[in-house]
Structure prediction request, 748 residues.
Amino acid sequence: MTGTITGADGRTRFQTTVARVTGHQLFWPVVALVVLLLACGIVSPGFLDVTVRDGHLFGQPVDILRQSATPLLLAIGMCLVIATGGIDLSVGAVMAISLAVSLTYIAESGTGSNLSTALTGLFLGLVVALAIGVFNGFLVTVLGIQPFIATLILMIAGRGIAMLVTKGQITTVTSPPFKSIGSGFVLGIPTPVIIAGGVFVLVALLVRRTALGMLLESIGINREASRLAGVKSRNITWFVYILCGLLAGLAGIVYGAPTMAADSNNIGLMKELDAIMVVVLGGTKLDGGKFSLAGTIVGALILTTLERAVVIFHLPTQVTPLFKALVLIVVCVAGSERLRGKLKIRRTSRPVVAAEVAA
Amino acid sequence: MTSTQTPSSTRGLAPTPPPAKTPSGLGATARRWGHRVADRRYLPVAGTLLTLVLILVIGQMRYSTDTRSFVNMRLFSNLFVDNSYLLVLAVGMTFVILTGGIDLSVGAVVALVGLVVAKLLIAGVALPLVLAAGVLTGALFGLLIGVLVHYFQIQPFIASLAAMFLARGLCNVVSVQSLSIDDKGFTDLASWRLKFGEGRDIWYVNLSMIVALVVVLVAVYLLHYTRFGRTVYGLGAGDGGQAVGLMGLRAARTKVWVYVISGTCAGIAGILFAFYTRSGFNLTGIGMELDAIASVVIGGAMLTGGSGFVLGTVAGVMVYGLIQVLIAREGLDSWWTKVFIGAVLLAFVLLQRALTSTRAGRRRSNREESPGRSRRFRAAAAPPPTADA
Prediction:
């Protein structure tokens, strides 16, 4: 042990670094992701290969990125909502509604192959999603209804509304421009990845390069105190619900575009729970306050890799929820204060014993 | 110290009969009853009952014929036959919601229990054992959530979400196909019923209804007449069980128990649902937890915890079932049900909000007395007992 540099608390620098890394909120999620990827790589040797075909990127990692786009879009909005101490349960239903509106418009216009029609459809879908966000935000901020119950209303009613829009049918259209939103490539990279990445960068710049992120955290920690300190907590909270609704609409369109079928019963089913899981896996606590946007990327990748891993391991895909549950429980328990407290006691008690022996 | 602590600690507790004070004449008695009726705690439930009556009146006006009235025993009999499992689920959910928690796993547990029951019966296990295993499965899931919530301090939402994924995944491990239940003993139990009335007015009481009724009665007793029930209401104050702990009640144990109760109810509901469908299927019960939560909220319970009644939940389930009946009678497509439930939910949430905002206003004047109380506590607390105020 001689020769090692010891810090003020008597720990070596290595120990301090280890403690800092393992203590980081993203440590366990990243470990889970790496373990999953390695396990897939061992079972299926070509898993981590990326090839370029016709100028487009192909390979399992690219597929995982592409499929992560939907949960990531949902999770970005959800993360900000959770930061204010709220929750948005309606995102799955919003996905169904905005896709239903977009596809119904394109189907009725009859000119699906026009770029302008596809863009108008996209626009209409997003406007409806925005309106839903406004409604949710109104209930939460102006009327002061608990976020859980305020968004539960649309979670239940939303799917019914989507069915009304499609008149109970599965609306299918043929619209190459619309389809390319979900299955196309831009500069060799899948469009959904570009969209999700762009949104992530924009939101990250918005919340971390301005004071917005800090204000969100202050609202989540203590709404009343931040209001008294001059934070416009009502407007900011409202904005966050609107953004969450808008991103949910975008996610619905990106998710449903490749199939071009608005199946109101199944599009986005349980996606709100996936999104919340992604946020929690990313190290953000549901109580509100501190949030980690980078964590949502890790969380979304874990979720998608997990779904892919089930296929790689030749397991029936219906078993996926089981593994989701295991990952969720392991990551939450590993990150829980109680377990960390216990580990910390054990870790700090050892050097003390060693010091006594040395004395 | 205790004398100053008590008023704030008892806020949000179960309503109890007013202390037996000697009434000074008829006027005082009348005033006391007037206060009780106007007690804000009963207003959400009164709203639920009003809705129930309104739906029944609308149904009576629209669907009654000269020979047949809409409101009859058969309507209620069908209502409880179709919704007995939901009633049991909602009663279990009431316990969890009263503590300010939530249990998202119940729908998946219902599906899992149905499959376990079907699988074990096909394997030839004795019926009583199978039923016990079904209920036990539910209770174990409840215990898992309770342990995660209490010992690892994971939010109820996430803990029960994990349990939901777990149950759904296990369902698919048991079977991805619908397993029909042909066991003689089981189908006998499922089809057993008492017949009342004659001809077209015939109505039934079946085993599911009796089980649901027993669950309701046990829940009423537990919540309103035991120390455990007081602790459940006290936990809903939203201060992490501190007030309850100061009163000498067992906060930790109760917190785990409410999830076990909810899980057990989900187990019972799973068996009732298997009675109803006579099969087990891995995709049943998707969204059933939302039905249960919506019923509890329509029944007048606050999701922040601390306020609500089992009998309100019963009324909530009836409103839920009656909306479905009305939609079917109108010949509307089934998705209208969801839209209507959403609308009713919205109306009730707005009603609750109107009630709590007047409470907050009243309490704002008392703020100097208790500056240290958290925002959540104030939002969740029910008004002080007004019986003798």
Chain B has one domain: 42-364+373-379.
